[in-house]
Write a structure and sequence with these properties.
Blueprint: E1 2-6, E2 14-17, E3 27-36, H1 39-46, H2 49-54, E4 59-60, E5 64-72, E6 84-87, E7 90-91, H3 97-100, E8 111-112, E9 124-128, E10 132-134, H4 141-145, H5 147-157, E11 166-170, H6 174-185, E12 190-195, H7 198-206, E13 211-214, H8 220-227, E14 233-238, H9 243-251, E15 253-261, H10 273-278, E16 282-285, H11 293-303, E17 312-317, H12 321-329, E18 335-339
Parallel strand pairs: 11-12, 11-14, 12-13, 14-15, 15-16, 17-18
Antiparallel strand pairs: 1-2, 1-4, 3-5, 3-9, 3-18, 5-6, 6-10, 7-8
Helix pairs in contact: 5-6, 5-11
Length: 341
Amino acid sequence: MRALRKLGPEPGLSLVEVPIPTIGPNDVLVRVRSTGICGTDLHIDAWDEWAQRTILTPRTIGHEFAGEIAALGAAVEGLEIGQLVSAEGHIVCGQCRNCRAGRRHLCVRTQGIGVQLDGAFADYVAIPAGNVWVHRHAIDIDVAAIFDPFGNAVHTALQFPCLGEDVLVSGAGPIGIMAAMVARHAGARFVVVTDLSDERLALATRLGATRTVNVARGTVADAQRDLGMTEGFDVGLEMSGAPAALRDMLANMTHGGRIAMLGIPTGETTLDLSTLVFHMITLKGIYGREMFETWYAMSVLIQSGLDISGIITDRFDASEHETAFATAASGQGGKVVMHWS
């Protein structure tokens, strides 16, 4: 089969032939049809400092995917060959305190497919049966392929109630825009999205943001005045990892405001903690998805009419992976998917 692999400790990826993975008694073999390119994949392609200290080569990368079950391990029950599936890409130990308490997303020994384990940018991928998510309702396969990042958006956006609230989203990448869409769908009054990319802000507007702000030319305070807001934002979703964005968000929250932070800063970040204290702000770190409550919420949101297909702006065949990765790395569009049919 074909697989997109990091063959050695250097920049670049190679589409090569490798054996189809073997599966154990509790595993599932999936015939991959569509995959989404994640920021993690871009880090691995570029072979930056994070990748150098994290990835052991050779490694098949990729963790956002959808396809059909092609084979079942001997002990697998409740799944059928031919079912359309995605999968939770975090493989947990099942034995630590959090796993045993049902808080699997907090497992201290988590491994990721496409990172510590061979991933899904391939014709086939082997996945533990317990990580498989069956799409039991009609869904576009490209949307199914990006359920992993959609889950990050849902996990972040639903940390705090949005009904009737004013929401500030910093970072108009695909996950940030999807988080804004979830907040609107969940009943937010105003959803303001900030970024430095006019193209991505335009996409956020097309997909339902109340107002966008290019912070190179405007301010969040300007947006508040335009919308007639007088007391600041109730909920903040920090998706950019930019220290300046987090500080700006903190300065524009109402007293008692709540911030969910998914963006990962590349270095240390300074904050005015007195504002955090005197304004009684809640700041909560978010990682991945809850297993599997977030997956249930994702399916329910799609079934209830939330259409995230517009976040996919570019589609390529797997043979065009270099162009696909360059498009994703440009930071100008939405989600990029690759097809493996």
